[in-house]
Amino acid sequence: MSFEHKSVLLDETIENLNIKPDGIYVDGTLGGGGHAWHVCSRLSEKGRFIGIDQDEAAIKAAGKRLEEFGDKVTIIRSNYCDMKEKLHEIGIDKVDGILLDLGVSSYQLDTVERGFTYREDTALDMRMDQRQDKTARDIVNDYSEFDLYRIIRDYGEDKFAKNIAKHIARARKEKPIETTGELIEIIKGAIPMKLWINSGHPAKKTFQALRIELNRELEVLKNSLDEMIDILNEDGRICIITFHSLEDRIVKTIFRKNENPCTCPSDFPICVCGNKSKGRVVTRKPIAPGEEEIAENKRAKSSKLRVFEKHENR
Is residue 108 annotated as involved in ligand binding? Predict the structure, then answer.
């Protein structure tokens, strides 16, 4: 299967990056190169683009899609949490724009053997970077019942988390849980049929929770945003597309903290903490896809775009 991923909020993202033809731009979740192509097409010969992704299939697909732009493109296989270090290795300390599209690609969802899908029976995998050893199977079989409950509750936001964890713990005493199909049947048994039959797939939230835990998605996001804002040039922008409330909440909170980092009590007449604003939040409310885009791409429905602009010298 070819690496395909319909770029969500494409026009809105490109517009909000405020691309300078001779600027330096980074896509930390390169995927198949959808957003990247549109960034590169707006760069002059002096411009530079760096794409980062941890998925080998994405690297190959994006490399082919972007080859027309020649030497202005550099592609690195890594996690975006290592962005500053990887840029430093190629002689870059500051950039004019950063893009993150945090959605799972259509390729990853639709390639059955990757184990992200809850619509097919395949090995429990869910690794975004297949160089790592740990898989979703290890979480399902090795985590304590309490830890399973915690991640399904916190990352899946499933009100049946406790019962799902209990059913998983009970089932794996008989034999290890090896496949997505086995796990789905266990989850179905933990949720009253009348509640899940009209509420989407019963395993959706648990699969989301396992994927987030395995790939440390929220931890990586939370620990990377401040550093990414720091490597922006003056007037540079960071655009982040999220797909669920947990990611969006992190982005919203960190953007606001960078805009107003003051920790002084509200009744202080002047700021004495010394924390200075790093810029402004461009999107007071997140940008959402229009009806036309949702009709063309159902996976865009939950997407939100937030934008922060760097200002340290004002």
Answer: yes
**Which residues in the chain are classed under CATH 1.10.150.170?**
117-215
Instruction: Report helix, strand or coil for 101.
Output: strand
**Was 200 annotated as part of a binding site?**
no
Residues of the chain with CATH 3.40.50.150: 10-107+218-310
Q: Which CATH class is domain 10-107+218-310?
A: alpha beta
- To the question of whether residue 80 is assigned a binding role by annotation, the answer is yes
Give the least confident one: 101-110, 151-160, 280-289. 101-110
Instruction: For residue 111, give the H/E element and its range.
Output: none
What contacts 11, CB < 8 A, 6 or more positions away? none
Three-state SS across 223-246? HHHHHHHHCEEEEEEEEEEECCHH
Q: How far is CA 28 from CA 135, 139, 160, 210, 241, in A?
A: 23, 26, 34, 22, 12
d(CA 172, CA 82): 36
CA 116 – CA 105 distance, rounded (Å)? 10
208 is in an annotated binding site: no
Report how far residue 164's alpha carbon sits from residue 185's, in angstroms, rounded to the nearest whole number. Answer: 11
Please give the model's pTM, rounded to 2 decimal places.
0.92
What does each C-alpha distance from 222 to 124, 131, 226 come to in angstroms? 26, 23, 8
Whats the size of the chain, residue-wise?
A: 314
- State yes or no: 38 annotated in a binding site: no
Alpha-carbon Rg for the chain in angstroms: 21
Instruction: State the average pLDDT for the chain.
Output: 93
- The tens digit of pLDDT for each residue in 3-17 reads 455 689 999 999 999
Query: Right CATH number for 117-215 from 3.40.50.20, 1.10.150.170, 3.90.1150.10, 3.30.530.20?
Result: 1.10.150.170
